[in-house]
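Complex 916.
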Amino acid sequence: MPHVDQHLSGDWLEADESVRIRLVANDQELPVEAPPRCTLADALRDNGLKGTRLGCEQGSCGACTVLLDGRPVRSCLMLAVQAEGGRLETVEGLAAGGELHALQRAFHDHGALQCGFCTSGFLMLAAGLLREEPDAGRERIREVLSANLCRCTGGGPILQAVLAAQRELRGGRG
Amino acid sequence: MTSGYIGVSVERDDLAFLDGTACYVADVDREGQLYARVVRSPVAHARILDIDVAEALAQPGVVAVITAADIPETRIPIRLPMAETPYTHLFLQPPLAREVVRYVGEPVAVVVASDPYLAEDAAELVDVDFDELDVVSDILSATTQGTPLVHAEAGTNIVATVPLGYGDVEAAFARADVVIRDRLRMHRHTAVPMETRGLLAEMDHGTGVLTLWGAAKVKHFTRSALSSMLGIERHRIRLVENHVGGGFGVRGEPYPEDFLVAFLALRLGRPIKWIEDRAEHFVATNHAREQEHDLEIAATADGRLLAFRDRAWCDQGAYVRSQGILPALLPALHLPGPYRWEAFSVETRGVLTNRTPVGTYRGPGMTEATFVRERMLDKLAAELRLDPAELRRRNLIRPGELPFSFEPAPITYESGDFPAGFEHLLDEVGYDDLCKQRQVRRASGEHVGIGFAAYTEIGAIGPFEEARIVPRSDGRFVVHVGVASLGQGVETVLGQIAAEKLGVPMDAVSIDHHDTEKLADGFGAFASRSTTLAGNAVALAAEDLRAKAAARLDVPAGEIRFVQGQVREPSGRTIPLAEVGEGRGRFDKPHPTFSFGAALSLVSIDRETGLVKVLRHAVLHDVGRAVNPELLRRQLAGAASQGIGAALLEELLYDEYGQPQSTIMADYRMPTVEELPDIEVIVEERPNTANPLGVKGGGESGMVGTPAAIANAVADALGVEGARVWRLPLTPDRVREMLRHH
Ligand code: FES
Ligand code: FES
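Predicted structure with FE2/S2 (inorganic) cluster bound:
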């Protein structure tokens, strides 16, 4: 099977013709074989990383949020081939060495989830934010979290949870 | 003997949602599965002249394409006897349109392919030749002279008329000092859970059993419906519930796709997977709420409510779905609310339009009725120059008057204390202070307003639930119930009840609600019924198990303990638990319970943009008894958030041709953390006398009063112009329009 690069200037591919795409997710190689039109979300989900959810495939809900080179992206709006060469992080990689991330614990403690369908996306969105802007203020956090939708909680408890995780993470930094 | 779990906020085990291992139906795969894609009508009303599937069939990966000609003549049945009439069968939906399509989104054909992308490509190529017909695009035009008929054979667009009456209405109106009358409209909107629907069906050729993953809410009914539609025995169909990404009333009813996916799995002998996409969801999954009321209220000059007359047109959409006439029946039952009327007459009508069928969404009927009544009460208060709180105070049914019945209307309030609940809400939010604040802020030119709503909510609808408790040899207990988990945490709540009643630690109990194979019957998760019905059934099953165990040892049931797989009595004699068999419980609930709730909202309006901001929002509900107060509070807060969305943002609009205008999330605006205040939740516990646990249910109640309270608050903020608030949502455009006249 050809690698996708070989087609960049060459022949057309059929809609269902697969190519090899090299993804790196949670610090592990994730070799994917999929048609070039396969979305990043589908490529992840078809290759064992099903924790990334699809709520709309229209770029609106954020359930599919993953980090690409540390920045949140909507994996439903991106093609898998576009993520080649980048570092992907998904919910499966959030807990390190069997220990839950501060955000995961805070989500539990603050009732930030009910059905859990939006949770992976919110966790990744918040993880990206707290790493990029560890001192983000409440209003900034609220603004960023408003990018995603949670139908069960409305999002208030998610904001509380992210603020609590931020306190913990900053405390940890000394 | 109890271990003290009931009433405690036991934490829910939610690890699987946090680490991504939760398994929703989209995450289930079966060897050799094929993917279904539904071809839907792009027009609202048309005769189907021809369907050409040849080109679609010739596409790579395509295995089959079916149309109505390939399936048996069958229709989706109604789930509740109370929601059926002698005529409703005329309007039931076939799984694939036959001859006529009646709404945009109606299934016309199904394409099955080896890959979901290919199935979607091929579906585009199914060529349907339509001869378009005139469209009924609005509830009011549905009943006017000469209007097109949605179902020509039925000869009418009226599905049902629900008349309810109490007392002598004419006499009460004749005595009135004041009569006010207005039209009010609740708009079309719906649940929009974050997970769309999805199904996976597989026939096991060895056992002859068809398994359907992705079930929810009313699994046992869906199984019976499929059994009769497919013509195979009930015990050969198994429905499995996976993790569910929100239900709120719309998920888990039997839909056309439930039949189609199961049918294809049988026909093709391979597993069939179908995951609804979001654009489909907006036209295929039940819509809700749209109705218009013409309401007239009679009162005395000192603010005593005498009587009301209501006539309403309630949208059913293009077909009557599994919830039958509930869209017209439930508002009728909730119009009187918690007030002492001398008389009323109600006539709600379920009418057909060429739009997506309507079902129930969280707080069904009650949310609409509460909006209509409470908005009118504020108008009455303005007319009488009375504080709206005072008007309600004077008319709430007092505890001494309970049980209170509006017979012959089937509405009876068994227990509670409505005035105390109402005062509790006002005290908790500091109503008097709030009024002062409003004064000050208005003086500085701000548009701020306070609004509230009081209501009654039907819940705990029967007929019954069953439970089985099976002890295992390792000392653990498996509890089988027929209700569903839709993200509410019902497992935790039922686990608490079982553990307390068995007298064992919670981690010795597991709740199994996933599978129709494990319990013969069940009615599912709707109408805030899970805790009441299944909870009491679990409690009875636990008592049954204790009684059986005690009988074996010849001691009173109160004296035995379950310890490490043994039954032990005080003097130390034991028998193995495995010898006792299983505990069974069945809780019957012939009459529903009504419970009391109220909501209060403080809003401000931006004069330039018309944008409404909710500054504070509080909801109160009498839940009888809170098994898990924290989980309940979260339910109430979540429901109130949805109610704020309904009041200010969300609307499913159609144009005059019946074309939906909101088929992507970007067009259907739902609230985010930016639009929502922290919801204040007040849980009252006035035990229900009608069941042993004393619970009343309440997972929907945060919704019920919320749109009404927000509408009243916006009207209050608008001052005199507020009288013009008659419909929702109160979008910036609409509010700005009203401000302009200010
Ligand atoms: S699934 Fe990607 S934004 Fe909704
Ligand atoms: S927890 Fe259900 S959508 Fe957020």
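Chain B touches chain A through 60 residues (CB under 8 Å).
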